[in-house]
């Protein structure tokens, strides 16, 4: 029960900085915690996939019950399906894109979850540059442009680099995000290497740069990273494509 509470807080980004790194260290030494985290993530993934399968089954049932055809986005489809797709496009475009996008896009959407900046905001301000703190505040509010402007004022701050890269992803500026993540990795001796490798790999995946993505995921899978299990799963998915 205690593990479950910590896992939920970790995945929601609710662990404060000290607790966050204590949790990550515990993952390396506590097999049960690592197992519980993997099981929880897998359960969530299965639940999402089950909802998608259920949705597609319902659409298929509608198709089978209709005989009149019409056109949707220029393609002939059954009228009820067209109505359902139009509804999805209006109120749930993200679900529709998951089906229409290629596998790389689907994997990116499945595994990408931006780090919360809340643990940085809750930390002692004496340990964080004021401009970075302001950037984290803007990031948490979804104001990614102002967040980037603030992080730019502290170009050597590694936390700022990480969240500037994440802000770039949120704005669709993937090439610029790559530069920030690579800079953190090249620095090496810091607390953000695991995150930088993970988000760099996902960014390559988003850009369909498969070879580079697989190289990064392989490095993560072979290391004692908290993202190791996820990287192994993605590599398996890419292998089976």
What key phrases describe this protein's structure?
mainly alpha; 241 residues; Serine Threonine Protein Phosphatase 5, Tetratricopeptide repeat; globular; two-stranded antiparallel sheet; single chain; 2 strands
Description:
The longest helix has 35 residues. Helices cover 74% and strands 3% of the residues. The protein is mainly α and 241 residues long. The chain starts with a helix and ends with a helix. The chain has a domain of 122 residues: Alpha Horseshoe (Serine Threonine Protein Phosphatase 5, Tetratricopeptide repeat). It has a two-stranded antiparallel ribbon with strand order 1-2. The chain contains 14 helices and 2 strands; from the N terminus they run αααββααααααααααα.
SSE order and pairing:
Elements: H1 2-11, H2 17-29, H3 31-65, E1 69-72, E2 75-78, H4 79-91, H5 93-100, H6 103-111, H7 118-122, H8 130-140, H9 144-152, H10 158-170, H11 174-187, H12 193-206, H13 210-222, H14 228-239
Antiparallel strand pairs: 1-2
Helix pairs in contact: 2-3, 3-4, 4-5, 6-12, 8-9, 8-10, 9-10, 10-11, 11-12, 12-13, 13-14
Describe what is shown at a glance:
The chain is mostly helical and 241 residues long. Helix content is 74%, strand content 3%. Helix 13 packs across helix 14.
């Amino acid at each position: 029960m205690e593990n479950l509470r910590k896992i939920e807080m970790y995945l929601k980004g609710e662990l404060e900085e000290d607790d966050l790194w204590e949790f990550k260290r515990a993952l390396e030494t506590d097999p049960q915690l690592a197992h519980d985290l993997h099981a929880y993530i897998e359960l969530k993934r299965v639940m999402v996939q089950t909802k998608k399968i259920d949705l597609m089954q319902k659409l298929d049932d509608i198709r089978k019950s209709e005989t009149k055809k019409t056109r949707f986005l220029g393609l002939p489809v059954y009228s009820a399906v067209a109505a359902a797709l139009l509804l999805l496009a209006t109120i749930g475009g993200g679900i529709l894109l998951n089906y229409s996008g290629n596998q790389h896009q689907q994997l990116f959407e499945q595994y990408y979850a931006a780090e919360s900046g809340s643990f940085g905001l809750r930390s002692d301000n004496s340990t964080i540059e004021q401009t970075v703190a302001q950037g984290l505040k803007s990031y948490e509010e979804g104001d990614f442009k102002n967040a980037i402007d603030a992080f730019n004022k502290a170009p050597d701050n590694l936390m700022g680099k990480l969240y500037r890269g994440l802000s770039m992803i949120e704005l669709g500026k993937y090439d610029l995000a790559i530069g920030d993540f690579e800079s953190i990795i090249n620095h090496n001796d810091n607390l953000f290497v695991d995150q930088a490798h993970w988000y760099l790999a996902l960014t390559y995946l988003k850009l369909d740069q498969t070879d580079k993505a697989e190289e990064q995921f392989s490095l993560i899978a072979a290391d004692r990273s908290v993202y190791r299990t996820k990287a192994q799963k993605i590599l398996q998915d890419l292998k089976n494509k």
